[in-house]
Amino acid sequence: MRKDNLKLDKIIDFEKWNKLQDSIALVTKTAIITVDYKGNPMTMHSECQKFCAIVRKDKEMAKYCQKCDSRGGLEAARINKPYIYLCHYNIVDIAIPIIVDDKYIGAIMAGQIKLSDINADNTLEQIVSEPNKDIKIKILQDLKEEYDNLPVLSFDEVENIANMLFDLCNYLVEEALDKNLALEMKDVINLNDYKMTKEIFSGHKTKSIENIKKEMSNFIINSYVEDKSFNDNNVSISRTLKPAIDYIYSNKSENISVKDMADLCHISQSYFSRLFVKEMGEKFSIYMSKLKIQWSKKFLEETDIPVTQISEELGFNEPGYFIKMFKKYEGVTPSIYRKYYKK
């Protein structure tokens, strides 16, 4: 994986994340901020409590706040799970590690709450040393009302929030890795003879690789096939059938079944089949075969990609069936079609 893809802004789309972060903070009654591996803020503070907002603006106290964010994130990365701890004002905070390729690149910090279970405080670690006692007492006296108004949750509620954020963070990372893998593959692909390199796939889950291969197949097909959608065809289709037609043209590499499309349209297979013939003029299986043969001709005309690979890219179960269908509709085999087209 490229080094620049390990940067936090390559993993998280902050424009979208900020809105989601605000919503989560509002619902959970916790303040949330996303920081890099040094503890530097990468987002605004969502639902930051007044007490903490004032403390963070104090030049001396802000250092302790940043240390909490930094050390909390590092501890979460060390144990590779949410870390719940106390800040220098005995306020509960949570650190959710963001880890990519075993490298800690940042954290989602949540908290600014007090616990309703008084004894639970004793089980949590105060992650940084307390500030000067006199300064601490003075701030607490000056901001007593704000401190008393901090949200109060049970320890179980805090743990549930921590686990939810951890699952969400893992989901964001996995989605980002899939996206980055697709971008890397597009960069290295030679459309005439592409190969999925071991280096690119290293560290990715099988499911992710299969999804990316599917995406890349569609990318390759769409590079040659002009009719990328059904919109250009002057055929009127019903709202019921439209999801299936859109899916067919958006997923050219799939071996799509009647059942898949009937389920997508939320109708029975028999009704889907009748409706398809009525609106498209022929059976689903015949329509799909003709369509894929039409798409395959673009590959044969413009590339040297092997026939077996074209068959695979277009979702045929086996090359022999592809060749059989091609000859049925075109009168010659794919190899002969290519040979005489390129003369």
UniProtKB/TrEMBL annotation:
Record keywords, A-Z: DNA-binding, Transcription, Transcription regulation
MF GO annotations: DNA-binding transcription factor activity; sequence-specific DNA binding
HTH araC/xylS-type domain mapped to chain residues: 242-340
Coiled coil: none
InterPro entries per UniProt: Homeodomain-like_sf, HTH_AraC, HTH_AraC-typ_CS, PocR_dom, Tscrpt_reg_AraC-type_HTH
Gene3D superfamilies (alphabetical): Homeodomain-like
Record-linked PANTHER family: ARAC-FAMILY TRANSCRIPTIONAL REGULATOR, HTH-TYPE TRANSCRIPTIONAL ACTIVATOR RHAS
Protein name: Ligand-binding sensor domain-containing protein
